[in-house]
Design a protein that fits this description.
The protein is 35% helix and 19% strand. By secondary structure, the chain is of the alpha/beta class.
């Protein structure tokens, strides 16, 4: 049975444990074993940096143990995906793992900026901080878009796709 590392900011939700249980059950339904980061055993009575290091090490091991990474790349605290999730995707890609990302809003990244948030500057658009806005007809940064298969929809949409392979 192939193992799927479940990446995403779902771990920050108030009902994160329940969400993990749902995602793991969905994995089983489609014939996969789900690896959810909050299933790691971590001693939270330690100093905060040690807790953080233990979480990091445990999640890295889960990614190494996985065959596939499925990542929630929906916007989190801004216009971009969660930075920890992005790191996990890059790490998995670097290990040669198959990476799938799911996203609800598949419009081009540049279109996620309102008229008040971008200004035409020559051939480019710039944001309110005078930085060029990436425009490669992808809904996310090109480094993510080119390193994985991006799926419009949700976690189960990816599982359905994987089941057909």
């Amino acid at each position: 049975m192939k193992k799927i590392y479940i990446a995403g900011p779902d771990v920050f939700e108030k009902n994160s444990i329940e969400l993990g249980e749902i995602l793991i059950k969905l994995c089983k339904k489609y014939g996969f074993e789900g690896l959810y980061p909050l299933d790691n055993i971590v001693d939270f009575s330690q100093e905060k940096h040690k807790i953080a290091q233990d979480i990091f090490d445990a999640n890295m091991q889960m990614i190494k143990d996985a065959d596939i990474v499925v990542a929630n790349l929906n916007q989190f605290r801004g216009k971009e995906a969660d930075s920890g999730t992005v790191w996990e995707c890059g790490f998995a890609y670097g290990l040669g793992k198959k990476v799938y990302g799911y996203i609800n809003d598949t419009s081009d990244y540049i279109d996620k900026f309102t008229k008040n948030e971008k200004v035409k500057n020559g051939d480019n658009f710039i944001d309110n901080e005078s930085r060029i806005i990436e425009d490669f007809n992808h809904p996310i940064n090109l480094m993510l878009a080119c390193s994985m298969e991006l799926v419009a929809g949700d976690f189960e949409t990816v599982l359905k796709k994987l089941k057909k392979l």
